[in-house]
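Ops channel
N.P.: pipeline sanity check, posting one input/output pair.
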């Protein structure tokens, strides 16, 4: 949207007075420039921004009051409006009358005469310094939150590895004690650690000790079944220990098929079972040779 001014002539006090009255009612800084970048009108908000009286600003321009670098930026955006005849808006830096550099959002609109020629522009300034500061603060807090979440995630993964170690208790026999509540992430970590250890140590038996798992639900049960199945694919048989009466009733109620999983009441009995089977298998292999 462009302002249409048939002719701006400060000698036409009726027209100019109405324009001045309109812009004076707006608290944000407003200025009007001719094609030579000279201010031909402004409001009290603009006077306060620069720290000069109205009569000292009229007929002057940006380099008279702003730092050279800032004035060059203002003029470059003026020229875009003058040459294109289209509105423009930009974020800029401006040093206020108090010497503080403020962040401003400036909207500039071309003013055209009856022939459609751009004869000047009208600018409206909004101080967004506080808004930018709040935005930067929000970004900082968000970045800190992301960093904290990443740290917590790494700590959780480390604790999972520590809480679910894979221990070689005998040649060819591994033990993985499961402690605490199981979820998808911890179950995946346990499975990954278990399969890696089976491959590295050529294990033939793995003992899954669930004594330290407080709750067994359908999700945890399925994770255990998947761990056993994955171990079998690597030629490793599984023994589950630590199933108490409550957990046993829960598993029966869930209808999970544990038919392919060997169970023992305690870690000691599970280890004895695995050692006996392993010893028998090796003796049979030696006799066959």
């Amino acid at each position: 949207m462009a302002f249409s001014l048939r002719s701006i002539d400060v000698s036409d006090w009726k027209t100019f007075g109405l324009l001045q009255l309109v812009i004076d009612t707006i608290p944000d800084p407003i200025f009007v420039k001719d094609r030579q970048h000279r201010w031909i009108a402004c409001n009290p908000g603009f006077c306060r921004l620069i720290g000069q009286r109205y009569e000292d600003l009229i007929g002057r321009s940006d380099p008279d009051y702003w730092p050279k670098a800032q004035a060059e930026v203002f003029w470059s955006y003026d020229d875009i409006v003058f040459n294109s005849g289209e509105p423009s808006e930009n974020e800029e830096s401006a040093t206020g009358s108090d010497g503080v550099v403020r962040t401003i959002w400036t909207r500039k609109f071309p003013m055209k005469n009856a022939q459609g020629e751009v004869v000047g522009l009208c600018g409206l300034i909004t101080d967004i310094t506080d808004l930018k500061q709040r935005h930067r603060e929000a970004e900082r807090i968000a970045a800190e939150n992301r960093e904290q979440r990443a740290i917590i995630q790494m700590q959780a993964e480390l604790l999972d590895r520590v809480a679910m170690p894979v221990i070689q208790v005998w040649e060819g026999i591994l033990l993985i004690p499961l402690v605490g509540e199981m979820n998808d992430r911890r179950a995946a970590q346990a499975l990954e650690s278990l399969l890696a250890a089976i491959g590295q140590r050529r294990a033939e038996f793995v003992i899954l000790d669930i004594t330290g798992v407080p709750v067994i639900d359908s999700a945890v049960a399925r994770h255990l079944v998947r761990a056993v199945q994955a171990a079998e694919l690597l030629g490793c048989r599984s023994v589950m220990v630590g199933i108490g009466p409550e957990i046993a009733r829960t598993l029966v109620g869930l209808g999970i098929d544990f038919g392919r999983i060997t169970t023992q009441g305690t870690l000691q009995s599970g280890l004895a079972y695995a050692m006996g089977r392993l010893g028998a298998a090796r003796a049979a292999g030696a006799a066959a040779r």
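N.P.: looks fine end to end. Residues 129-163 form the longest helix (35 residues).
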